[in-house]
Specification:
Length: about 500
């Protein structure tokens, strides 16, 4: 017995897994000096299966990675491990080697060719190989954005985000500077300079990736499409529409976007979104989130989208979303405008909207009274609209910033429904008329009892949207968890 050596094959399976998990977890520590998990996959077949299930789970793909990605995912087993692909479309720097795929001469052609190559790769994957589906995330990056204007956009978080994808941790963002539309860098460095402002608008707050003469093949393994606010450039609406139509099993669209700097560009982008929604989102889509932000400088204030475009968009969003189960539209349209156009949403279980009425920006008493009356009218309108949503479990309307915050919530659970009002303001918003309207809605949802709670929030602590998110029931749908920690 003394001469026997430890044998991996003789160990119980539970102990093997414990050892492998301990080894993998050692790489999650922020002070780990280990070089990576991939080398462990060469130890044995058992180790290969275990560690490839981790290393193939998430991919961050630049243009140069697309060919190796195709080569390394030929195995159905490896394809089944993939859960998240982040496609980073970056401009090529001078002197970089050829991508090895057919491309045109401009960055946009590079981007289109890269997308086509990835789509062609994924089109060969079968549902059986990736039954759970995967998330496809996209972002575009220009050299001007990466270098000259780097301090005027959210910090490129490729390292931190890769760590999050690997471990789920957010600790690495604790000491990263937050970015929002009131960030000091805009006030001190861009706003006073018209040339810098124009340059930043062109390089950062615009759209690109227009697929000219390119048709994407259908890809069945993608079930979620994601863009995050860490990237300020918008995908061209025609391209976005083609992406959505090319994913027949797409169940969720999560789109965080920044307002475009030029009025014409923003108007065309909104018209493109309008066209996409007007003909109806694919029936496979059950969840849609649009989170809209804009930089607060005079340049944006002078270039507001025309009213006609927004009116058309509201109607199209309502029509296109009739079959959805979850819908969140934050800061792209007003809650009262959406609810005024609401039809019967037979499948909707959660709805999140925003309203400018929830922030008091006037010191005038008459205007304050008028805003109060409009806010109550909004809550009555919401109750009426919610009664046409038979499966509704949650509706939230909210806003925050400049030291103020207000959140209205109606949720259905158990044997009762509940109305919740949280606000930094003193006004009596949820009065007897509002409560009676929501009692009627609760009865439509099969609940004879309606509870009401009102919470006064402390004034001054709400600089931006991010500080309001912890008070939302729908916070995980409204914004990606990484995006939430990147804003105040």
């Amino acid at each position: 017995m003394d001469d026997m050596k430890p044998c991996w094959a003789a160990l119980p399976m539970e102990l093997k897994l414990l050892i492998l998990e301990q080894l993998a977890n050692a790489h999650s520590f922020h002070d780990s000096t280990r070089s990576g998990l991939a080398p462990y996959a060469s130890v044995s077949r058992d180790w290969q299966r275990f560690f490839e299930s981790l290393t193939f789970r998430n991919f961050v793909l630049r243009l140069k990675d697309l060919i190796p990605f195709r080569e390394y995912t030929q195995s159905p087993r490896r394809r089944g491990y993939v859960r998240h692909i982040w496609l980073r479309l970056e401009e090529s720097r001078d002197g970089e080697e050829s991508l090895g795929i057919p491309v045109g001469g401009s960055s946009t052609n590079h981007f289109g060719s890269a997308m086509l190559y990835l789509w062609t790769t994924l089109a060969s994957w079968t549902i059986e190989e990736s039954s759970e589906g995967l998330t496809l995330e996209m972002s575009t990056h220009t050299l001007a954005g990466l270098i000259r204007y780097a301090r005027h956009v959210p910090k490129d978080d490729i390292g931190h985000y890769s760590k999050h994808l690997e471990t789920g941790s957010l600790e690495q963002y604790d000491h990263v500077a937050r970015f929002n539309h009131t960030s000091p860098s805009w006030a001190t460095h861009i706003a006073p300079s018209s040339s810098m402002q124009a340059g930043a608008m062109r390089a950062l707050y615009t759209y690109d990736v227009k697929l000219s003469h390119i048709r994407l093949p259908p890809v069945e393994v993608v079930t979620k499409f994601l863009t995050r606010r860490a990237n300020t450039r918008n995908i061209h609406p025609d391209t976005l529409d083609q992406i959505v139509r090319s994913l027949p099993r797409l169940g969720e669209i999560h789109f965080e976007r920044w307002r475009l700097g030029r009025e014409g560009d923003e108007r065309r982008w909104l018209k493109g979104l309008n066209d996409m929604c007007r003909y109806g989102l694919p029936l496979s889509v059950k969840k849609l989130t649009i989170f809209h932000e804009e930089i607060r400088v005079p340049f944006f204030a002078r270039s507001a989208p025309r009213r006609m475009v927004m009116e058309e968009l509201i109607g199209s969003l309502v029509q296109g979303a009739l079959h959805l189960e979850h819908l969140a539209l934050c800061f792209i349209i007003e809650a009262d405008e959406f609810l005024s156009n609401t039809l019967e949403f037979r499948n909707l279980t959660s709805l999140t909207l925003t309203s400018a009425l929830f922030i008091d920006r006037s010191a005038d008493t008459d205007e304050a009274v008028e805003r109060l009356m409009k806010t109550k009218k909004l809550l009555l309108l919401a109750a009426m609209a919610a009664s046409r949503m038979p499966k509704l479990q949650l509706i939230e309307i909210w806003n925050g910033g400049d030291g103020q915050a207000s959140v209205f919530c109606y949720k259905v659970g158990g044997e009762r429904a509940e109305v919740i009002w949280k606000s930094t303001q003193d006004e009596l918003i949820v009065d007897a008329d509002v409560l009676e309207a929501w009692r009627a809605t609760a009865r439509v949802h099969g609940r004879n009892e309606l509870q009401c709670s009102v919470t006064r929030l402390g004034i001054g602590g709400f600089k931006y949207y991010g500080s309001v998110l912890p008070y939302l029931e729908s916070k995980e749908q409204v914004l990606h968890k990484v995006s939430a920690v990147q804003m105040e």
